[in-house]
């Protein structure tokens, strides 16, 4: 039997019930890397993904909740701006491919304030 290729997937969800939300979140923390509160990076085979999907569906109400998976192509890198979800100084070969973009607020240009004017400026 040939070995199945493994790939990264992003899993994102919007769960309406706090109880279902907490249960799904706790489960996914044991299966994948948390990137944000409701976004995870998961690595495995297609068969394992189907098993994971079946388990995740046990935690949600498909008439109210939204659960999505996005397969990442080989070589795709997750871009991180701001605080990284990964432990600083720890090298883990299991982390999804990513690149951190550290943004120093002191180095931002004044016109990068998203078009907002300060209180003293005229509209």
Automatic annotation (TrEMBL):
Matching InterPro entries, A to Z? CRISPR_associated_Cas2 (IPR021127), Virulence_VapD/CRISPR_Cas2 (IPR019199)
- Please list the cofactors this protein needs: Mg(2+)
EC number(s) recorded for this UniProt protein: 3.1.-.-
Keyword Cell wall biogenesis/degradation assigned? no
Question: Function, please?
Answer: CRISPR (clustered regularly interspaced short palindromic repeat), is an adaptive immune system that provides protection against mobile genetic elements (viruses, transposable elements and conjugative plasmids). CRISPR clusters contain sequences complementary to antecedent mobile elements and target invading nucleic acids. CRISPR clusters are transcribed and processed into CRISPR RNA (crRNA). Functions as a ssRNA-specific endoribonuclease. Involved in the integration of spacer DNA into the CRISPR cassette.
Q: Name one GO molecular function term.
A: RNA endonuclease activity
So where does Mg(2+) get bound?
A: 14
Record note on quaternary structure: Homodimer, forms a heterotetramer with a Cas1 homodimer.
Record's superkingdom? Bacteria
Instruction: Identify the Pfam families for this entry.
Output: CRISPR_Cas2
GO annotation terms (biological process):
defense response to virus; maintenance of CRISPR repeat elements
Q: What is this protein called?
A: CRISPR-associated endoribonuclease Cas2
**Enzyme class (EC, first level):** hydrolase
Cytoplasm found in the keyword field: no
Q: Which UniProt keywords apply?
A: Antiviral defense, Endonuclease, Hydrolase, Magnesium, Metal-binding, Nuclease
According to the record, the residues making up region (Disordered) are: 101-123
Q: Name the protein family.
A: Belongs to the CRISPR-associated endoribonuclease Cas2 protein family.
């Amino acid at each position: 039997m040939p070995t199945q290729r493994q790939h990264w997937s992003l899993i994102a969800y919007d769960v309406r019930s706090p109880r279902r939300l907490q249960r799904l979140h706790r489960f996914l923390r044991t299966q994948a890397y948390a990137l944000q509160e409701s976004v995870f990076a998961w690595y495995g085979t297609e068969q394992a993904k189907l098993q994971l999907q079946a388990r995740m569906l046990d935690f949600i109400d498909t008439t109210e909740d939204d659960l999505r998976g996005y397969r990442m192509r080989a070589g795709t890198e997750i871009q991180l701006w701001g605080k990284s979800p990964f432990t600083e100084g720890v090298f883990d070969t299991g982390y999804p491919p990513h690149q951190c973009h550290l943004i120093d607020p002191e180095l931002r240009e004044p016109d990068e304030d998203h078009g907002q004017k300060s209180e003293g400026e005229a509209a």
